[in-house]
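COMPLEX REQUEST
Ligand: FE2/S2 (inorganic) cluster
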Amino acid sequence: MSEIKTVDGVDTHPDWSHVPEHARHVFLCTGPRCTQRGAQQLWKTLRRHLLEHDRIETPGGVLLTRTHCQFPCNLGPIVTVYPERCWYGVRSNDEVRRLVEGHLVGGEVVADLLIKART
Ligand code: FES
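STATUS: Structure written out below.
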């Protein structure tokens, strides 16, 4: 990050002028209720598993983004996956691993983790 410059009071870097490579955009909620249910730890697990599979910001990989509340707090922590528009509730490191290996690497929806399956 040595190329960071401040222009008109805003930090800039050449890498911040393009959309990172990805096939799927994944949003993990780190809003207040999901955080109470362990979203910060699950974020680390999600990122680590994606890195192990070389799936972070690669052409076939994932652009991973933390969000504030996505609204179905009671079913969280919430992970949404696009372009498939899948809404998942994940509550353990094992469920994160299944999501990564099943959907984000294997390309198959993990049906029992969809929030519809938990309502
Ligand atoms: S805090 Fe995560 S869905 Fe509301």
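REMARKS: The longest helix spans residues 39-52. The longest strand covers residues 24-29.
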